[in-house]
Specification:
single chain; about 170 residues; elongated
Length: about 170
């Protein structure tokens, strides 16, 4: 990805079309106290969620051991304990998915905590870019565009070219 950033910067410089700058978002995150505070808070919440998951697992283990050790249990009592075991397993799976799975609470909470910091960084990059005349700012750590001047956006031209090319292809058939 860093090769891609370097290539974009070289192409922009060669074309003389854009003044390019680079930031290192990892270094910015490591330096900002706000990010460390957010990470610490998230870690505390993760530990609480993990403790709850561990508690559910302990319940499952206790019920399983109870079923294994008690041979003299009535069939009705055994069915009740097995049903409870299945319920606890389902509860743990649902909890783990809702907290730790894709789109889960950990992911959402991380976004909530870090989003204001990212917004501040993006605003600072935008202000510096406008003040110093940068048309394009790339992130060396993440490999993506952080800021681009509207003058660099050729989306409308590409759409126009595609619609024109599509029309000529249709007419030639």
């Amino acid at each position: 990805m860093k090769i891609y950033i370097a290539l974009c910067a070289i192409m922009a410089a060669a074309a003389g079309a854009a003044t390019t700058a680079v930031i290192d978002s990892e270094r910015i995150f490591d330096t900002l106290g706000d990010v460390a505070d957010a990470r610490e808070l998230l870690q505390t919440e993760i530990e609480e969620w993990q403790a709850h998951a561990d508690s559910l697992q302990a319940d499952i283990d206790a019920i399983s051991q109870d079923l294994e050790r008690t041979l003299m249990m009535s069939p009705e009592r055994r069915r009740e304990r097995e049903a409870l075991l299945d319920e606890k397993k389902r509860e743990l799976e649902e909890f783990a998915a809702s907290i730790f799975g894709p789109g889960g609470q950990v992911e959402r909470r991380n976004s909530e905590l870090v989003a204001p910091v990212i917004a501040r960084i993006n605003e600072a990059v935008r202000e510096i870019s406008i003040a110093d005349g940068y048309d394009l700012v790339l992130d060396a750590a993440g490999g993506f565009v952080v800021y681009a001047s509207d003058a660099l956006d050729i989306t409308d031209r590409v759409l126009e070219e595609l619609s024109t090319a599509g029309t000529s292809d249709d007419q030639s058939e």
